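Predicting holo structure, adenosine-5'-triphosphate bound.
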Amino acid sequence: MNLLDQIKSDFSAYAAQAEKDSFFETRNNAFLELEKCGLPTLKNEEWKYTSIRKISEGNFTQSCVSELDAKSLLEAGILNTIACNKLVFVNGCLFPELSVFLEEDADIVISSIANARKGNAAIITQHFGKYAAVEGQGMVAMNTALMSDGAFVYVPKGKKMKYPLMLTNITDATQHGIFQQPRNLIVIEESAHGSIIENYIAIGEHASFTNVVNEIFVDNNASLEHYKVQRAKGETYHNNFTQVFQNGNTNINQVTLSLDGQWIRNNLHFYMNGQNCNSLLYGLYITDGSQFVDNHSRVDHAMPNGYSDEKYKGILRDNSTAVFNGKIMVHVDAQKTNAYQRNMNILLSNDATVNTKPQLEIFADDVKCTHGATIGQLDEEPMFYLRSRGISELEARKLLLNAYAADIAEKIKIPELVQILEEEIERKL
Amino acid sequence: MLSINNLKASIEGKAILNGINLDIKPGEVHAIMGPNGAGKSTLSSVLAGRSDYEVNDGSALFMGKDLLALSPEDRAREGLFLAFQYPVEIPGVSSTNFLKTAINEKRKYLGLDPMEATDFLKFMKLKMEEMEMDKSLTSRSLNEGFSGGEKKRNEVFQMAMLEPKLCIMDETDSGLDIDALRLVSAGVNKLRTPERSFLVITHYQRLLDYIVPDFVHVLYKGRIVKSGDASLAKELEVKGYDWIKQEVESAK
Ligand SMILES: Nc1ncnc2c1ncn2[C@@H]1O[C@H](COP(=O)(O)OP(=O)(O)OP(=O)(O)O)[C@@H](O)[C@H]1O
Ligand SMILES: [Mg+2]
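Done. Tokens:
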């Protein structure tokens, strides 16, 4: 069955027994929107280079069943050495044995959404479905209508997470193709601080489709560190939509690392709803084989004195493909906005492709914005310099690529994550 | 040590070196002078293995090996070092990591174990003292934001670290202030041994007051048109190149 038909039949099954679900109205609206706008096609400007043909063909199964035990999951590579809170979801379902809560402050909530709906219903109702708009967004609508479980993180006013949350999603496609729709809700209240690592891994030979929606609310004077590490090897299709909604005087540092996976589409949206918002968006993609990685971002400067800095860098090998599309919207009230955006690419082969499109739309007059994109090879001069000192071509390339990645790596405040990057560069050469 | 025979090289079809002959024995210091565009940097680039240049004829034997058949890295590992006229900045590559990699790649080639991190740091500290290198330079990215003079001094420091057999120095003195020139020359003189040879490319007699050459050659239009001892450099300082150019033209 193709994906859309499957969704329709799943939704009518859900709707038949949903009258007690407090999300029903939101989900039903999302479903109606999906019926209206459908799934994106190449005709859609935002999906011009990004075919979801394989995904819409469907033939995936939604199933929590996994024969994996905790031990083998840990060995599957869940960034084990970092001292952190942990939530692990397998095929979209919580794996409670692997949850770890290190925070001393019991007011901080780190849980699955399903569990949190019992004790934290009010906060969830206040925020759920409020930021990731479904209008014209078939993928978001599909998630909202039929989401799996996901993480709920709640850092109340003035509280600070001492440890990051490692939010690991494991695709177990050893038995059959997998379809899952993780849905995470992150609420950082006034003057609070949160730190989250989204970590995606996969095992098994079958194809899988993971359709994630993150809603992140950051209230006045709060801050957030957010990392996304995509290492789901194999025939994995991964769509991720993250909407960050930030109030005034907030600081957000977001780093997206796209390393493994057949097909990755990241949609990262920031909405600055207050003055003096500070948002950093950094990303690195390292691709080989026939990998496809698409980073779409949008920063809405809706209020004055906002600062955003976006830098995405790519290293592409073989016949892999990357797409970058970054939109900066400076709304009419957003005077004194500073917005910077760069996309840089190094192609290590003649068969790799990059489509890059930085976009500025400015409706205020007193702003400073720059954008730019580059595509090129590794420079020959530094290469020769290093080789002339006795360093082999391979080692020289490694040094230069690590140097190229360094300004992204230095935005990562967790050393173990930086280490992964270095290993990845080494492995992909 | 190095024996160059009738070396001809071109770039993009344009002949630059038109038959160079040069013999350098262990411990000797040779200076090459010559007007702008004569081919001095080309000669050093060809010897170091820059691939932009095409070697059309001739040979170069280094320690008995066919130099031109080796990759740039193997030339370096065999003991050839080129101090560049324009050292390139490499942001993001730390000087320390770069030097450690270079030394250990060479050791691997020679069948030696890699140098332990602590031994390496000790060695580096020693060489920095010897070359009077400032710590603030080696703690930065390679050449990044270095002044012209600092870059040149860093080339000589790398030379000290890598302990080559043959040091080719392409205008290492250009752009140095008087104190830096003294430091660089003193550094080079510390590196002089009965085995180590130098090929010093320069426009100025000044440097040769400090590093006294055994031989001075004049390169003109891709050929060595005159050779002599240290006094030749002094003569050039006074008379310029015109008389040599005339000699060459009238001999045609
Ligand atoms: N990439 C290139 N393409 C074309 N011509 C080149 C190239 N590189 C060098 N040349 C030419 O080769 C000739 C020799 O250059 P080279 O740099 O070797 O001179 P040089 O003797 O080192 O001069 P200087 O004293 O100014 O450093 C010059 O005429 C130069 O323009
Ligand atoms: Mg030159």
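The first strand of chain B starts at residue 2 and ends at 11.
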